[in-house]
Amino acid sequence: MSLPVLICDDSALARKQMARSLPASLNADISFAEHGWDAIEQLQAKDFRIMFLDLTMPELDGFGTLEEIKKLGLKIPVVVVSGDIQPKAKERVLGLGAKAFIQKPMDKEVLKQVLRELIEPPQQVTSVTPVTFELPVVKRRDIYMEVSNVSIGRAADALARHFDVFVELPLPNVNIFEVSELHMALKDLAENSQVSGVCQGFSGEGIAGEALVLLSDSSVSDLKKLMKVPADSEDLEELELLMDVSNILVGAFLNGLGEQAEVRFFQSSPVLLGQHIPIESVIQSTMGSFSKTMTFEVSYNIEGTSIRCDLLFMFVDESLPLLDHKLSYLMEDF
Question: Residues 6 or more apart from 73 whose CB is under 8 A from it?
């Protein structure tokens, strides 16, 4: 007897990893969904025994999917598998009816324990004819999207714990830019507002680059309120706040990336690019640093505030073959 399983994740790599991680004894009959609405449609058309659900997805994210499942009265045990590991995210998904939470990258032993709790032993017997299914095709960009997704989740978790807030975590953007395209992307980040910007260099085993942390003036004002810093406080206190945010986000992201690439990254002290300045001034500070770069970019929003923090990682050209090599194991079947 086969076990119908639904795996919902926008990442082809994550879908493949999840499928490969399921024990053969389940004889899983696996279906895939790329976002929440796709999953809901499949849940209404077929009876599944268990569902694995990502949180950060386009169209309808994991939180919205759980709400929709509850609203429709669909009876399906849901296991959330996500890089968004902040405490309030876990609390919310369990409150919405998820049966378990597994953080990415996934530990197979944790998965086995969850399956033991949710799947009855008789349904773990292998049938005579194993079910076959087609695995997703994984491309280079899929790898970088999933790796950055896990890393920005680590950064959001660090920020959430430090300020005791819930950080809304959108999908990351991964691109390879010429320097002129990078400057256009920076302009899009800040839109029309003035910003305060901090830069930190980083390196590890020949992989190097710079991280930019940008906060709009309105974000700085709300951040000071959140930290109960007087609105008319000295620039020095505001600068310390900026440096703290930069160290938290950049350090946690690099730790997440380093765990996956097995690289120990070192980061330099944050350098102030300017406070309350137009984005053009930040762009000028990056002139000459890169000719072409791969970037990871994400905008963090803190729930209930207007705080938006843009985080941009830029890797120098020479680093890309080394980073490709470090992450090549993710292209392999396992």
Answer: none
| 267-309 tens-digit pLDDT | 999 998 888 777 677 666 665 556 667 889 999 999 999 898 9
Start and end residues for every CATH 3.40.1550.10 domain found in the chain: 140-331
Side chain identity at residue 67, one-letter code: E
Q: Tell me: the pLDDT tens digits for 208-242?
A: 999 999 988 888 888 888 877 766 666 667 888 88
CATH superfamily entry for domain 3-124: Response regulator (3.40.50.2300)
Give the Cα separation of 40 and 45 in Å (integer): 9
DSSP 64-130: HHHHHHHHHT----EEEEES---HHHHHHHHHTT-SEEEESSPPHHHHHHHHHHHS-GGGGSPPSS-
Domain boundaries for CATH 3.40.50.2300 within the chain: 3-124
- 8 Å CB contact between 198 and 271: yes
Q: Under DSSP, is residue 212 helix (H, G, I), strand (E, B) or coil?
A: strand
SS (H, E, C) 300-327: EEECCCCCEEEEEEEEECCHHHHHHHHC
> Taking the model in full, what pTM does it have?
0.89
- What is the CATH architecture assignment of 140-331? 3-Layer(aba) Sandwich (3.40)
Secondary element (H or E) of residue 30: strand 28-33
**Mapped to the 3 state alphabet, what secondary structure does 127-181 carry?**
CCCCCCCCCCCCCHHHHHHHHHHHHHHHHHHHHHHHHCCCEECCCCEEEEEEHHH
What DSSP string runs through 277-303? E-HHHHHHHHTTT-SEEEEEEEEEEET
Q: Is 299 exposed, middle or buried (0-12, 13-18, 19+ CB in 10 A)?
A: middle
Q: In whole angstroms, give the CA distance from residue 52 to residue 288.
A: 45
Structure tokens at 50: 């268990």
